Amino acid sequence: MTAAADTRLYDAIVPFDGERQAGISTPAQANLNLVGFNLVDGVDRGAVARLMRSWSEDSRRLCTGETPLGSLEPELVVAPSNLTITCGFGPRVFEVIDAVDKRPEWLQPLPEYKLDQLEDRWGQTDLVVQICSDDPIMLAHATRHLVRSGMDYARVFWMQQGFLRAYGAHKPGETPRNLFGQVDGTVNPRSEEEFNEQVWIADGAPEWMQGSTSMVVRRINMNMDTWEMLDRPSREEAMGRKLDTGAPLTGEDEFDEPDFTATDKFGLPVIDQQSHVFRAKPAEGHPEQRIKRRAYNYDIAPEPGSEQLSNSGLVFLCFQKDPLLQYDPIQKRLDEADRLNEWITHIGSAVYWIPPGTSEDGSTGDAYWAQRLLEA
Amino acid sequence: MTAAADTRLYDAIVPFDGERQAGISTPAQANLNLVGFNLVDGVDRGAVARLMRSWSEDSRRLCTGETPLGSLEPELVVAPSNLTITCGFGPRVFEVIDAVDKRPEWLQPLPEYKLDQLEDRWGQTDLVVQICSDDPIMLAHATRHLVRSGMDYARVFWMQQGFLRAYGAHKPGETPRNLFGQVDGTVNPRSEEEFNEQVWIADGAPEWMQGSTSMVVRRINMNMDTWEMLDRPSREEAMGRKLDTGAPLTGEDEFDEPDFTATDKFGLPVIDQQSHVFRAKPAEGHPEQRIKRRAYNYDIAPEPGSEQLSNSGLVFLCFQKDPLLQYDPIQKRLDEADRLNEWITHIGSAVYWIPPGTSEDGSTGDAYWAQRLLEA
Fold this sequence. Notes:
2 copies of one chain form a homodimer. The first copy, chain A, has helices at residues 3-7, 45-63, 91-96, 136-149, 192-198, 224-227, 232-239, 276-280, 327-337, 371-374, and strands spanning 31-39, 84-89, 127-133, 154-163, 213-222, 292-293, 296-300, 311-320, 344-354. By secondary structure, the first copy, chain A, is α+β, with helices and mostly antiparallel strands.
């Protein structure tokens, strides 16, 4: 074990500034704190701008391992460990800043899905801050710093904590697994071209929106107790993929294209038409029905009185130009007939506009999150 | 970045079997699930023995990266990432197994401390399982496996989750920090001799107890809001140590012995007599007042209606031969006058007997946890 190996995570930095916010196309870290804030009474456009300036400046420093102004804890900021901080606006912010006419059409509650069992405590908030790091202490400290520095403007409504494999506990580029044991995130944009097609808002949008995107948050409870009653073939059939490799049931490799026309010796489809893979694929002639998934697992103490032995699931996060055109049709198809629905329940839902990236000197357009919108 | 570096955590294994249980003197991992279980009605000595046999066998396999019997999830057990699983008995187990005469004197609720604000929901349970890993997915899967495999015998009462720095985000041997930014765990046994003196029950005890120890669990809320109002010198005075290096205020290095006789130019003690360091040191002539601290940070969603902006603190775990002789006198002195009490509150408390280690062939005496006690 060499010193170099042991300090490599310590020093790892994801640039905070850029055309787009970090934490979306950048590699997913091991730990997530997704914090939903509500603005306090009396906050207006000027106050939102002050909060965004202050949070952006603090985040820039935290993500680069520098001590933010006013911090008393330099020892807790030395190891960013790939820290990213990503901020978004809920629908009400556009009312607060008196800019309802600028609010994107899609920034509203998602359509209701028949199987939803949404709980208010995991519902829409005014702001979201997605904080991710490969180090849980850095994560906690960055979260604490922003909660405190924003306390005059916004208060925590919920905090959704999640995790993936630790840094070093997986091979580079390996697709993460969820707690059902499934490879989760195979179909995802990876190239810049794919991100431009699916995620980043660009041409046609006003300048202050270019480079922005949307985030959908769905809290999905996974019933481990009933799932574990299934044998492996039944699990694979429900998903349409093999558990070991993540390959479609018609292929050998995780990234093989599923062959939905293939049939077995009885003439039945190899990939069931109610499998997750079948239901999630873009509809014929609708290549825009793709999204960037960036889901985290959760596993917390069982609720008192719960019948489930565990309290596990997904903090499902996805990014796309337009949730109504891209996420909604997929979720409608899943809600109608995905076989996985027997073991999963959507219990939380929210949508946010994710402003473009920033630059310290303002050369990208915004020196702090949403500056051009807030100072227009 | 080489493939070797990226798989080293993946393959890291802490031996499950041994004279003592792992997870006590072995290096602290990044992630903790401390699970308090209560036995279900009707469980008797034979059932406890069956549970211990089953949990020991499953744990042995999980910790070595092998799939436990009956598991459907081989993909989730490939990367132990230093997984350890450590089991303990609360006082009631000795009643259930009809062996009250064998129960250690100290296996009872700790004396009340005047500042305690204990909540039943973090109180004593029949069993405790301490699960630690450097990988949060391995941690969640191991926890789930044991919860399910034990469901006919025991149900989860609480789960206390905690974290330290990620593997690779600190230098080897570096003492961890808590969320107050303090180095936490400087005074700890490190050599085998120190562990024999302070932690492992040996000579004079019945054979089934030799190699066992006790675990004290204290859940300690840390009020970040009021702590952060202090400037750095006041924080250092309250602790008696420097924040940057963790050195005592009379020294330069973390491991320098504090000089409690040193005075400043006004003749006042450099280390305040109400500082944490002063209060925590063994009383004159009582070198046995030492413990193995293995505390984890917690940081979870704020409670609804809480006045604190954050919900942070310590899952304080310590191990010692006898909590009444070793932990209690320290905690009494801290409870009486530790200046840190202004910012911390003990909200949970429990004590467990931690059986000796195991060996697959029974050559250490127990093929499963507490076999000699349970089969006596």
